[in-house]
Design a protein that fits this description.
The chain contains 2 helices and 29 strands. By secondary structure, it is mainly beta. It is globular and about 60 Å long. The protein binds alpha-D-galactopyranose. Residues 102-103, 113, 138, 245, 291, 330, 332, 336, 356, 358 line the site of alpha-D-galactopyranose.
Length: 392
């Protein structure tokens, strides 16, 4: 009798253990991210690409060049018979990212977005920065954080596979004061969440505003435009800009304007509503869509995550909810994409091929002492946590 019972128990143990054993060999199970060589920089340094995978087919790829999110694969909804889709615009090779491109998937810094005239004053000293966007400074300058090689460490965190990236930006880098250490961690959480945790410390007073600049297209990165996507922006006010995209200084109500993507709207607003319909001067140069900062509803400087935006592809039902602890979000509808860039799998990225939902402090804050500050003191820590929740 005992022998029979033991045999049953052994069998039971085997049945229970088998999936775990098989799982260990299954690349889609949470594990330390895998690493591969992504290419070599002109100066000979090797660039890597990390793949974060969790059960169900979710996958994020990240490179240490620019701390760029090169891909994000959303698996098909269970039982839908659909296909897995990569929802991030980008390139298959390092060469694409080394060539000129509009910050695809990158972490931008030291101060992303614009600084009017490329100048600011800190503690009575004037600083001059590169004017790489008309008369203004954009996304950290000529060689911003998106063009630096970060030091990467892959690991399995308690939330899921993660990559820690670290960049030391020396004192005077691109004209900014202070030696700044920036750290970004990408974590893929089982079930379809991507966490982007950004911090920075400095040995002298400086300014910082890091953004994650992924272009999303929930129908697939090469599927055409995001015009049909539903959009929610958790904001009652936006930042009007001048002819060079610098905020004029006021926060205006979105109600009754093409900037209205408030969550109450039923049915939800579509990206298409804003395309080509902005008031003159609202989107300088090329009014093909929104490229503006919004004031996140209910923001307080308490470090708590709040909803910033929701994007949904009505055809597939795929959705992305963006949460962050930042006071603002820049909504950029890929207005300047013009079809000259050939991306992953030969995709051609034309106008509005993707949308950026860049949580951050308000653009040009260095010139608005009454806005949430971009200033960082030695001994202090800049923090920016983003949580991207996907629905397959
Ligand atoms: C940001 C800016 C845009 C544009 C893109 C990159 O989102 O707000 O105006 O410069 O980056 O092309």
């Amino acid at each position: 009798m005992t022998a029979v019972r033991d045999a049953w128990l052994t069998l039971l143990a085997l049945v229970l253990l088998l999936p775990a054993v098989a799982g260990a060999k299954d690349p889609t199970v949470s594990a330390v991210p895998t690493v591969e060589t992504f290419g070599t920089l002109p100066d000979g340094r090797e660039v890597h690409r990390y793949t974060l995978a969790v059960p169900g087919g979710w996958r994020a790829t990240v490179t240490d060049y620019g701390a760029i999110l090169t891909g994000f694969v959303v698996p098909p909804r269970e039982g839908s018979g659909g296909r897995a889709v990569d929802v991030v615009l980008g390139f298959d090779t390092l060469a694409g990212y080394v060539a000129k491109h509009p910050y695809f998937g990158a972490i931008c810094g030291r101060v992303s977005n614009r600084i009017a005239g490329g100048r600011f004053t800190l503690d009575g000293r004037d600083y001059r920065l590169a004017t790489n966007n008309g008369p203004n400074h954009l996304h950290g300058g000529t060689v911003g954080f998106d063009r630096k090689l970060w030091r990467a460490t892959p690991r399995l965190s308690d939330r899921g596979p993660a990559v820690d990236l670290e960049l030391v930006s020396p004192d005077g880098d691109e004209g900014y004061p202070g030696r700044l250490t920036a750290r970004v961690t990408y974590t893929l959480v089982p079930g379809g969440e991507l966490l982007v945790d950004m911090t920075a410390t400095s040995d002298a007073p400086t300014v910082v505003n890091l953004v994650q600049h992924a272009y999303w297209n929930l129908a697939g990165h090469g599927s055409g435009t995001i015009a049909d996507h539903e959009l929610v922006v958790h904001a009652d006010r936006y930042l009007p800009v001048d002819a060079t995209s610098i905020p004029t200084g006021s926060f205006e109500a979105v109600a009754g304007t093409p900037f209205d993507y408030r969550p109450e709207r039923q049915p939800r607003g579509r990206v298409a509503e804003a395309l080509g319909k902005l008031p003159p001067g609202a989107a300088p140069g090329d009014p093909r869509g929104i490229d503006h900062g919004y004031v996140v509803r209910g923001w307080e400087p308490d470090g708590r995550p709040r909803p910033a935006a929701v994007l949904r592809d009505p055809a597939s039902g795929r959705a992305l909810e963006v949460f962050s602890d930042q006071p603002g979000v820049q909504v950029y509808m890929g207005n300047f994409l013009d079809g000259t860039l050939v991306g992953k799998e030969g995709a051609v990225y034309g106008p509005n091929a993707g949308i950026c939902l860049e949580t951050q402090t308000h653009p040009d804050s260095v010139h608005h002492p009454d806005w949430p500050s971009q200033r960082l003191e030695p001994g202090g820590t800049y923090r920016h946590a983003m949580r991207l929740v996907f629905t397959p």
